[in-house]
Structure formats: structure tokens, C-alpha cells
Amino acid sequence: MRLLACLFLLAAACSSNAPKPTTTPQPTTTPTGTAKTAQVAVALRPGTKVVQTIHADMDGDGIDEIAVWSQAEVAPEGSPLRQSYVDVFSAQSGTTKKVLDAGGSALTVDPKVVGQQVQFFRFVTFNGHPDLVLGVLNEGAGAGPLDLWVWSWGTPLRQEFRYSTTVDGNLALRGNQVTLDTGSYKPSDPMCCPSGMSHIVIGNKDGKIGIVSETTTKS
Length: 219
Known about the structure:
- By secondary structure, the chain is mostly beta strands.
- It has one domain (3-218).
- It is built from no helices and 14 strands.
- The chain has strands at 3-8, 38-43, 48-56, 65-72, 84-92, 95-101, 115-125, 130-139, 143-152, 158-164, 170-174, 177-184, 196-205, 208-218.
- The strands form 4 sheets. It has a 4-stranded antiparallel β-sheet with strand order 3-4-5-6, with no helix packed on it. The protein has a 4-stranded antiparallel β-sheet with strand order 7-8-9-10, with no helix packed on it. A 4-stranded antiparallel β-sheet has the order 11-12-13-14, with no helix packed on it.
- The chain is flat and about 55 Å long.
- The termini are far apart.
């Protein structure tokens, strides 16, 4: 098993959502403003490489947790699709512990059948502490549902929110909220042509993560 040693510094540069095209991607960060310098050894699965890393102090102990999006280096036989993985690691008592394996929930589809593309990978501070937000688009012959997942601190991390669109969608960060634009379908609408567009805002709602507002405009 390969080890990727990531040194996180206070006030590190913000991350980009886009995958790094280089053969040896450099870690990108989401600064918290309070994290102490810490070294977290991240264990990657054999046959995978890092696409992007982000970090934030999820548990408030002054040491950042690190979220790693990795991808298989080769596709399975008979498929052009390479499987993605998302894991979160935490430095606890001088050792590294994996506190989330999204392969058991958000990223489970066999790439020989259906592809999954990570479209959103950020830490978002909904309720005063960073939560991990993951947006995954499912694809077959065409675009399928876009799944949104939110996890908060715990060992393992706790799923706080989940939402799935009918077909596709676009996620964006707006302050301490996430916006989702997606088709609004009536029962008679074909999958290509929704009657309208739903504009959904996800954020802090009565101390929990939920849908703050939803409006629909006609197509």
C-alpha cells in the first residue's frame, strides 16, 4: 500500500473543484484559519492515484482532517470508466485513522455498468463547523440522477443529508449554503425535456442541514 504524506499549513491556499490533470497531483486545501501544522499519512488503495485532496478541522481539535478523492489508474476490462473513491482521514493520538469510506454508500456502482462522476467535492460550514459535501452524477446511456451527500464529524462520519435529482443537476457553493439547479419533471415529461427548473438551496435549517428554499421556473 502506498502512503501519501500530506503536510498541511495554516492559511494554505483554497482548493479547486476541478481534477488536476498532472501525473503527480499536488494537494489542494480548504483553510480553516485555526488548524495547527499536522502531518497525516494517507493510505491509498493499490492501483489508484490522487485526483484531489481538501482539508478542514471537522472536530474542532485544531488539527485538520483530510478528504481524498482518488481514482483507479485503469478501467476494468470491457469498460472505459475508472472507479472513483472518496475517503476521509483524521490524525488522532499521533496515528492516522480512516473515518469515512464513501465506497460503502455514495460510490458503489460497478463501472462496467454505470459510471459515477464526482462533480462536487468541498468542505462547507453550514452550522459553524465544516461538513464534507459530495455530489456524484450517475451515468449510463445518458445522464442519470445526481446524488448529494453531506457528512458531519464522527468516527465514523455521520450522514446528515442526502438528496437525489431525477436527472442531472448543477451544484454550486454560495457562502455557507449549497445551491442545486435541476430539472422539474411532471409525470408526463420525457427525461429529455422537463417542464421547468427547480432551484434548491441547502443550508442550516433549525440547526440541521436541510432544504432552506425551493423555487421552480418554467422551461
